[in-house]
Amino acid sequence: MDLSNLKPAKGSVKKVKRIGRGQGSGHGGTSTRGHKGAGQRSGTKKKKGFEGGQMPLVRRLPKFGFKNPNRKEYRAINLSTIQQLAETYNLESISPLEMYEHGVISKKDLVKVLSKGELTAKLEVKAHAFSAKAAAAIEAAGGNAVKI
Known about the structure:
three-stranded parallel β-sheet
């Protein structure tokens, strides 16, 4: 085997569709564009969602629901994660800044502490929100939950 007898794998190369090259190409006459109308001429494009004049799906379906513009998305952090951070980095207080520095959250995340897991370390935990059980668990361990 050498360069002179290399071929692409069977079925991997398709024949080029030569449009606008006369009747012999098999695509002569209208060049696969159909007869007359805007779609036959150059420089046309259909707008997104156009269904040939039929009422588009987006307009056939009813509107429903509501998006609250004042909704706040919190990043849920469990007590087990806070305990792990405290043990690993010997922390006495944990805030969203420390969580960001150690790769637990993104810079702009709002943090809500949830009660999954156990907290044994005495910590001051700062966050944007706490579940009632999480706040109670932090205070039961000797720490305090500070809402930012």
